[in-house]
Design a protein that fits this description.
The chain has 241 residues and is an alpha/beta fold. Helices cover 41% and strands 15% of the residues. A seven-stranded parallel beta sheet has the order 3-2-1-4-5-6-7, with helices on both faces. α1 links the parallel β1 and β2. It is globular. It starts with a strand and ends in an 11-residue tail after the last strand. The structure holds nicotinamide-adenine-dinucleotide. Nicotinamide-adenine-dinucleotide (NAD) binds next to α1. The site of nicotinamide-adenine-dinucleotide has 27 residues, from α1.
Length: 241
């Protein structure tokens, strides 16, 4: 039977590349996002490349929808939590609702999905969480930073909890990647962010998909609880000067 992979945020910049790559790797991919139209467009585009996927419209902040989704699928061989929210707000302008919005998707949806899916996963299955290099600390989005640090914590805890079931759980920490999410940055903030990335360019969604393929693939059997930085060296710190 074909191994099933579920990818959230599938219509997003990274999600699309991850779905394509896992489908090319031979997974039967369930592609989850909010909007019917972008998912349909993705499915049509991939069908043109000879890749068939299963698009599913689900609001991941709804526990009922999320549970119905997972329970209606065969056990997953791979779960990729890529759906995420990002925006920039000055530190002293942040309110409780800003934190709640971030945590609801970036942590709680990923955690609920992981827990629900892992209960039925076979040994050798994988969970890959798309965190962010920002979890180490960044200016102008403390709510996002905190939610991604929480996701890394949950990744590590899940790796320990699920090791006895033979499930491996890891996170990827992307640096600046060229996707629609970057529209939240002003040109000045974008330039400031790029200046911190020693390689001097934004990464591509395909470069993230390549790392997901490695961590989610059947040959990966002995890495768990780790954070793989795919960030052009941004996590090295310092100005490089
Ligand atoms: N782009 C970057 O530079 C960057 C850097 C570091 C980390 N990340 C992380 O990578 C992941 C993917 O980011 P991206 O750049 O592809 O973002 P994106 O904005 O292009 O895609 C995010 C997707 O999540 C979906 N989504 C939002 N709320 C949802 C909900 N309630 N239910 C279902 N789907 C929902 C959106 O519709 C969208 O398609 C995110 O977790 C993000 O935080 C991105």
């Amino acid at each position: 039977m074909t191994a099933v992979a579920l990818v959230t945020g599938a219509a997003g910049g990274m999600g699309r590349a991850i779905v394509r790559r896992l489908a090319q790797d031979g997974f039967s991919v369930v592609a989850v996002d909010l909007g019917e139209a972008p998912l349909r467009a993705l499915a049509d585009e991939l069908a043109g490349e000879g890749l068939e996927i299963q698009p599913r419209v689900v609001d991941l902040t709804s526990e009922a929808q999320l549970v119905e989704l997972v329970d209606g699928l065969p056990p997953l061989a791979a779960l990729v939590n890529s759906a995420g929210l990002f925006d920039e707000r000055k530190y002293f302008d942040l309110g409780q609702d800003d934190f709640r919005r971030m945590y609801e998707l970036n942590l709680i949806a990923a955690a609920t999905l992981t827990q629900r899916a892992a209960a039925r996963m076979a040994p050798g299955s994988k969970v890959v969480n798309i965190a962010s290099r920002a979890y180490l600390g960044a200016r102008h989005h403390a709510h996002y930073v905190a939610s991604k640090a929480a996701l890394v914590g949950y990744t590590r805890a899940s790796a320990m909890e699920l090791a006895e079931k033979g499930i491996l759980v890891n996170a990827i920490a992307p640096g600046l990647i060229d996707t629609p999410m970057l529209r939240a940055l002003t040109p000045e903030r974008m330039a400031a962010q790029l200046a911190l990335q020693p390689t001097g360019r934004a990464g591509t969604p395909e470069e993230i998909a390549h790392a997901v393929s490695f961590l989610a693939g059947p040959q990966m059997g002995f890495i768990t609880g780790q954070v793989l930085f795919v960030d052009g060296g941004k996590s090295l710190g310092g100005s490089g000067a």
